[in-house]
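Milestone M4 deliverable, item 7.
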Amino acid sequence: MSSASIYIDKARGIWTHAGFQKYFQNTSWMFLGRILGLFISFFTTIYVVRYLGPENYGVLSYAVSFIGIFSFIASFGIDQVLYRELIKYPDKTNQYLGTAFFIKLFFSSLAISLVIIFNYFLNKGEFLISLSILIISFSFIFQSFNVISYFFQAQVKSKTPVIISIIVSILINIGKVFVIFLNQGIIYLSLILLTESILNAVFFIIVFNKEKNIFNWKFNWNIAKEITRDSWPFIFASAFTLIYTRIDQVMIQNMIDTRSVGIYDAAVRLTEVWYMVPNILMASLFPAMINSKKNNEQYFKRMKMIFILMLTISILLSISNILFSKLIIYTLYGKEFSGSVIILSIYSFSLVGTFLGLLMNNYLLSENNKVLIFLNSFIAMAINIILNLILIPLIGMSGAAIATAISYSMVCLIPFFSKKVRTDFKIIFKI
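Output delivered:
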C-alpha cells in the first residue's frame, strides 16, 4: 500500500470516529453562529458608526470600555473553572450552576455599585457619558444567567447557545436600526445594549428549563469555596486582562479627547471581529484537551495541532488587515475616519498574540497552574499601562495601538520563564 493510501485511510478513520464527529459538529455550530452573528451585526455596526460620527461614537465606545473594566468583578473569574468542573462532574450540574449563579449575582451588584461611585468622580459634569455608563452597567445582573451557556458547552452541545445568539443578534440589530431610523442617539443605543443581556438571560432560562429545571439550582458552600479557591488567579487574571484590553480607550479619553476614542475604537472593532475565531476553537476543543490529559502523548499531539492552527490563521489575518487597512476603513467608515487606517495596521499585530495567548491560558488552566496565570496577566497589564503612559503623549493613538500589540504578545511569551512550560513545549514540537 502506498504512503498516500495510508494517509487517506488514516484521515478517513479520523473523520468517521464518533468522538471526532462530535467535536467537529460542535465546532461547526459555533463557527456558524459566530459567522451569522457577525454577518447580521457587521453592517449595522458600520451604520451606527457612520451615523454617530467620531465624536458621538467616541462617547459610546468610552462608556462600553469604562464598564468593561469593572466586568471582572461581576464574573468573579469563575467562568473557566465552572466550565472545567461541569465537564468533570456532570452529575453535579445543579449544584455548580446554582452556586456559580448566586456568586455572580452578588458580585454583579457590587460591580454596579463601584461603577456608580467611580463614574460620579471620574465623569462628573459629563451627563451623556455618565448616563450611558449607568444604563449599560445594569447588564451585569442579567449576565449572571450566562452560566447556562457553560452547561451546554460542557456537554459539547453548542447548537443551543448558538441559536440563542443568532435570535438575540437579529432582534438587537433591528433595534439599533430602528433607533437610528427614529433619529435617536446614544442613550437609546445604550438601552439596546442593556436589552441584549436581558434577552440572552430570558432565552437561556427557557431552553435550560426544557432539559432541567432552573428552580433545582442549589447553592453549595463547599462548592463555593472550591470554585473560589480555584478561580482566584482567574479573578485577577480577568481583571488584569480587562484592564489592558480596555484601559487604552479610557486613557485616550483622558489624555487626548472623545473624538480620538471614536477613531481608535472604529479600528479596534475591525480587529476584534476576528477574536471570535480563537474563542470558538478553544471553546470547542478545550474539552478534548482536558479529556486527553490521561494520555500525555495524545495531549501533546492535540496541543501541537491547535498551536499550528492558531499560528497560521492569526498570521494570515494580520497580513490581510495590514495590506488592506486603507481600503477597509475608507470603504466602511468613510474619510471622516481616515485616522483609523494607521491604528488598524498597528493593532492587527495583536492578532497573533491574541490567538496564541488564549491557547497558552487554556494550557495553563488544564495544568491548573494558578500562579503563572496570575503572573502572566499581571505583567502583561503592567507593560500595557506603562507603554500607554509613555507612548500616548509622544505619538497619540498610535502609541496606544503599539502598547496593545506588545502587551498581547507578552501573554504567550511570559510563561516560558517557567521550566515546566519550556519542557512541555519542547515535547510538543518534537512530536
